[in-house]
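Hey L., structure's done. Input below.
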Amino acid sequence: MSDQNVSELPFLEILKVNDSQKAPKIEFPCEYPVKIIGQSGPELYRLVIRVMETHSPGFEHSKITVRNSKNRNFQAITVIIIATGPDQLESLFSDLKVDPLVKMVL
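Output:
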């Protein structure tokens, strides 16, 4: 690299975030996808259904997708719910994350 100061490189200017720029706020209620990655098997699916029913009663079961990993050791379950607010999402995520079958919640 030359003697040029790193802060003078034009591509870095694009990466700088202005204080006035914030992540877009979610407007509730809205459709919200929740992706759960965990140990493959019927227990994970039952857990996801139970937690979704607790935090989003009456969610549409037709809006569930399940994908298996290549070796079928893990599953990614995506559920689209009607999110009513940040408290609902925090509780839902918390209830999923405490179970040892769940590896990640997005």
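The chain has one domain: 23-105. The CA atoms of residues 5 and 92 lie 47 Å apart.

-- N.
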